Amino acid sequence: LISGRLNPGSHQKVLMKTGLVLLIAGHLNFITGALVHGTVLRFVAAPRDAVSLQYVIANAASVAAALLTISCGISALMLSRYLAPAALKWALLALSACSSLGCLSCLLGLLVAIGLTLGNQGRALLAPCAVANVALAPVSRECPFDPTRVYSSTLSLWAVSLVLESMEIIFGIRCLLLTLELLRL
């Protein structure tokens, strides 16, 4: 520490570690969102159903926030290598602020989606299945997916996404604070 501030060597190490965490968490969250969309939500999405529309919007926003987090992680890694360019510092400041706010809004959207799913016992997830008995649905042609585990799988993937969104918020704010310090703001 030099007069209460980190020296440039420690900035580089902290930025590199933060960037790597953001890059990994962003990729994992992107994959989780893609799995939820590909296995369940593409069948459930109905423009007239408010609950399924909320599911799709929350999941799409989560995937978009993951892409923003990946961009933030790449910028942090680049800045850890080249501390001099002011434009890169400002870009990282903007990306980390947008990523943190985007992830926060996605976290809230996913919490609402989980609450709605728990509140209606997954009926919105099983709406495309026109079968009266869910146990017989896998052998039925009336259901576009296997509904036996869709409720628990979707909730599990959303829980993983919540954890990843939380990590992205924490490390995005850390990146934001590091960039503020680098810019001496």
UniProtKB/TrEMBL annotation:
Topology within the bilayer: Multi-pass membrane protein
- Write one Pfam family the protein is assigned to: BCLP
**Alphabetical UniProt keywords:** Membrane, Transmembrane, Transmembrane helix
Database matches in InterPro entries: Beta-casein-like (IPR020977)
For whether the record's keyword set contains Transferase, the answer is no
Please tell me whether the keyword Transit peptide is annotated for this protein.
Answer: no
Record family assignment = Belongs to the TMEM54 family.
| Name recorded for this polypeptide | TMM54 protein
Tell me what organism the protein belongs to.
Answer: Mionectes macconnelli (McConnell's flycatcher)
